[in-house]
Write a structure and sequence with these properties.
- The N and C termini lie far apart (62 Å).
- The longest helix has 28 residues.
- The chain has 240 residues and is of the alpha/beta class.
- Strands 2-3-4-1-5 form a five-stranded parallel β-sheet.
- Helix content is 55%, strand content 12%.
Length: 240
């Protein structure tokens, strides 16, 4: 009967409950004093935990972060203007729930990408779908999508992520096509989802980087009006 039940649980894709039942079976002395409902609760809890873990693993794979960055490993000792209280608040991910944005700027080597990936990692743990792109790679992907007819599908996919991380923003001027693509993405995501923008450029140089003042106004207005700002300073962390 037990073997039949285990098989049924696996067929129903209740592998967490099956594993927990097998554990109870192998350690009868540990569970024999528990009531039926208490043992059933343990099975359900194990299934729930396993499903949560699978979801987190799936979100992490989908995000394709550049770095394996973890919030607990963020360095607050270096003098680079990183406020631990602000990070603690952002790591709660309430800003994602409110469809707010984050603007992360600072010089090369100041740890911007690590912090962005750590925030993305935390978002995945909280159950938010996340995607990391370098802007140059995203521009290339959009160009290829136009060529093969999947452009609208890609835009819809990008719009569906709870958190979009755009790294290396402003390293090179945007083409007319890239400006249009960015406008489409920001318009789709406005008030519905969150974007984390990472850039070496101070914000007063973003208009020049976009290259068209009218589109720059439209793009930056959608992004910056509700953005939390982190401005890193100091020497490169790589030297230290």
């Amino acid at each position: 009967m037990i073997e039949s039940l285990l098989n049924q649980l696996r067929q129903l894709k209740l592998s967490g409950m099956a594993a927990a039942l097998q554990s109870q079976r192998e350690q009868p002395g540990t569970y024999e004093g528990l009531a039926f409902t208490e043992r059933l609760q343990l099975l359900v809890d194990h299934e729930d935990q396993e499903r949560q873990q699978r979801k987190q693993d799936r979100l992490m794979r989908l995000a394709q972060f550049k770095l394996n960055a973890y919030p607990k490993d963020i360095d607050y000792q270096q003098s680079r203007g990183l406020k631990q209280t602000q990070m603690a608040s952002l790591l709660q991910c309430d800003w994602i729930n409110k469809a707010q944005n984050v603007l992360l700027t600072g010089p090369c080597g100041s740890g911007k990408t690590y912090i962005a990936c750590a925030l993305g990692h935390q978002a995945c743990l909280k159950g938010y779908s996340t995607k990391y792109y370098r802007v140059s790679r995203l521009t290339l992907a959009l160009t290829q999508a136009k060529a093969d007819g999947s452009y609208l599908k890609l835009l819809k996919s990008i719009a569906g992520f709870d958190l979009l991380i755009l790294d290396d923003w402003g390293l090179e001027p945007l083409s007319a096509a890239a400006r249009h693509d960015l406008m489409e993405m920001m318009d789709d995501r406005y008030s519905h989802s969150s974007t984390l923008m990472v850039s070496q450029l101070p914000t007063d140089q973003w208009y020049q980087s976009i290259g068209d003042n009218t589109l720059a106004d439209a793009i930056l207005d959608r992004f910056m009006h509700n953005a939390h700002r982190i401005n890193l300073k100091g020497e490169s962390m790589r030297k230290k």
